[in-house]
Amino acid sequence: MSNSAWQKSSYSGSNADCVEVRTVDGSIELRESDEGDVIVRTTRPKFAAFLRGAKAGEFDHLTAN
What we know:
about 60 residues, alpha+beta, 4 strands
């Protein structure tokens, strides 16, 4: 499987304050757009579980001011 391009959320805006994701050899990689050298790699099932939790609101308290 080939590497895909980095993708960010359409909610991120034009500044560098975002997290980008891509697939690499069947895994998922995440990085901060302004810290491109720091990459976290995880499996598709783990990332899918995280996304389900995020969609369910389990992490909303982390973004509250």
